[in-house]
Amino acid sequence: MLDVLIVGGGPVGLFLGCLLSARGLSVQILERRAEAGAHSRAIGIHPPALEAFEVLGIASPLLAAGVPITSGLVRGERGAVLGELDFSSVSARFPFILSLPQQRTEQILEAELERLAPGTLRRQAEVKTVQEEGSHVTVRYEQHGQPHTAQARYVVGADGCRSLTRQLAGIPYPGATYADKYLMGDFPDTTVFGQAAVIGLHAGGVLESFPLPGGLRRWVARTDSLLTDAVAADLTALVHSRGGYYLPHRECSMLSAFEVRHHLTAQMVRGRLILIGDAAHEVSPIGGQGMNLGWLDAAALADLLGGGAGQSALADFGRRRRRSALIATRQAEANMFFGRPARGAAQQRRERLVGTLLRSGAQPLLAKAFTMRWL
Predict the structure, then answer these.
(1) Would you give the DSSP letter of residue 95?
(2) pTM given for the model
(3) Is residue 40 over pLDDT 90?
(4) Strand ranges (DSSP E) for 158-228?
(5) Cβ atoms of residues 161 and 279 within 8 Å
(6) Cα distances (angstroms) measured from residue 27 to each of 36, 147, 151, 152, 179
(7) Which of 350, 364, 370, 360 has the alpha carbon at shortest distance from 75?
(8) Collapsed DSSP state (helix, strand, coil) of residue 277
(9) Which one of 183, 285, 326, 327 has the fewest CB atoms closer than 10 angstroms to its CB?
(10) Is residue 14 predicted with pLDDT exceeding 80?
């Protein structure tokens, strides 16, 4: 009888597995994929997540692998600096957002899990049924074509927005797709921005860029439609037309067109089944909150499961984490709103408003909001 069985071996499931194993609980993680994904959409690790990693003792390897983003520079249509978000006051230990591709973060988490509890992660394991049976949950799955059965006091679904665990439990996942579409890619950093993120509020839509390890920079541009057939030259043309920056399109190492959605499950806790991360809530990636929200779910849940919490405490956990997901959703929507096309007088009003906010006493509060200090 396991203490906890986790469905999903992505960054959230791995982190929860590490936290529970460090507390001495017996854990098994079932992951459908044979290996972690090759490309990383998520790159930002916010201070609250870094503080949770530090408790586990793995903040140092993450810091060694990543690039700290110390500020966010906001520019207007003609390149004028509207203001700057300075992150120096958001955390005593981690006054920055760490830029590190998700793939590398997963590798570090998986190595730590293997150190703590060898053999906990089982890949190519596809769940077939999840059945609660009073004092425990029975999970049937297949691995390499062979049927297996596992029993655990609790099952945690950390298997993403298309969560099979959630579907098998019949838990609703209401939400919708936004009209906003984006194109992003990674290129050698040809700018002088260093460790700063840069947000350009342009008439045709937002243009964002973030430093990456290895001398790279990620560029994200809002587009009028989903450019699934785009090539690197399409993004470099957008970057040049909006910001005036030249990028070597032949040196693009990742290109992805994406749309954004929001979902929030009606229940994060049902009996002995618990949903966390994107299995429970999906927010727009604009602002980089989604993966961090899942890690904070995991940190809060590990404290409860490690301490033998009852159903009332778990129900309260679900309510609190749903509230945090709602806040993150609203913040992401505000980020997208300010990044939509605006021309003429509308663009001028937007620039004045953003400039006023960034130069006012609200700047520290905005910095805390963008680094997830209240989630």
Answers:
(1) -
(2) 0.95
(3) no
(4) 175-188, 196-200, 207-212, 216-223
(5) yes
(6) 20, 19, 11, 9, 40
(7) 350
(8) helix
(9) 326
(10) yes
Nearest-angstrom CA–CA distance, 149 and 333: 42
For the chain, give percent helix, strand, coil, nearest 5: 35, 30, 35
Confidence of residue 375 (pLDDT cuts 50, 70, 90): low
The DSSP 8-state label assigned to residue 251 in this structure reads G
The number of residues making up the chain comes to 375
248: Cα separation from own chain's centroid: 28
The values of phi and psi at residue 289, to 5°, are -95, -25
Alpha carbon distances (Å) from 183 to 214, 228, 230, 238, 243: 21, 9, 8, 9, 15
Q: Which helix (H) or strand (E) holds 363?
A: helix 363-370
Q: Which of 83, 82, 69 is nearest to 196 (CA)?
A: 69
Give the span between the Cα atoms of 96 and 118, in whole angstroms. Answer: 33
Give the position of tokens 């939400």.
175
Residue 79 confidence (pLDDT): 82
Distances (CA, A) of 54 to 48, 92, 362: 10, 13, 29
Cβ pair 339, 201 in contact under 8 A: yes
Burial degree of 73 (CB within 10 A; 0-12, 13-18, 19+)? middle
